[in-house]
């Protein structure tokens, strides 16, 4: 993959979060990763989407060094860096402050599998991390946010290849995928699942998760070895 192509991928994905109304003003960022080179392209910090172009994307290596670009990378760069190091096989990461996902993050609540829409895309509750500990800030807030996500997945025994969404308590959502555009797609799906879940509990605070056999059925029919959904 050429460096220029990586920057174009990141640019298109960042424009997609704007088109999908996942971010107001500058409230979001997407990165695109080239695992062969160990480099990712990410949105520059604080720039409006209307001011972006492929050349404005900043290339950063897994040591956090800027490889190419004149602008400062996103303030969330170190979180992306940790996830690329720890979650093998992902090629894109999206972070937004989308309304419904942030509402669950601010309530510090994981999202139960209330319905089949959720189960189609994730066969487990969407995890919410603990609130980040104050002493962790000395090691770098964004880097420790990444570590917190990784720790949350390890504790819950979740596979990031199958569970592509997380809520960071008090902060907001991160999603990932095989490439940058897929990570945005998962961000859109997460926002809709969070909206549905909030409406569900507003109608019935005692709403329960789906039975395990229905969750597994909906996941397997799309993602299992005998999947039959689609063409």
Name the features.
single chain, about 230 residues, alpha+beta, L-fuculose-1-phosphate Aldolase, seven-stranded antiparallel beta sheet, about 40% helix, globular
Q: Which series of helices and strands comes N to C?
A: HEEEEHEHHHEEHH
Specify the number of helices: 7
How many separate domains make up the residues? 1
CATH structural fold name: L-fuculose-1-phosphate Aldolase
Outline type = globular
| Rg of Cα set | 17 Å
Main pleated-sheet profile? 7 strands, antiparallel
CATH class wording: Alpha Beta
Beta-strand residue percentage: 5-15%
The total beta strand count reads 7
CATH superfamily: Class II aldolase/adducin N-terminal domain
Q: What would you call the structural class?
A: alpha+beta
Overall average pLDDT: 95
First-last Cα distance: 29 Å
- CATH 2nd-level architecture: 3-Layer(aba) Sandwich
Weakly predicted, low-confidence segments: none
Helix content: 40-55%
Q: How is the largest sheet built, in terms of strand order?
A: 4-3-2-1-5-7-6
Task: Write a structural description.
By secondary structure, this protein is α+β, with helices and mostly antiparallel strands. Helices cover 40% and strands 14% of the residues. The chain is built from seven helices and seven strands; from the N terminus they run H-E-E-E-E-H-E-H-H-H-E-E-H-H. The chain has helices at residues 3-19, 77-86, 99-106, 116-121, 141-156, 180-203, 212-223; strands spanning 28-34, 39-42, 58-61, 66-68, 92-96, 165-168, 172-177. The protein has a seven-stranded antiparallel beta sheet with strand order 4-3-2-1-5-7-6, sandwiched between helices. The longest helix has 24 residues, at 180-203. The radius of gyration is 17 Å and the shape is globular.
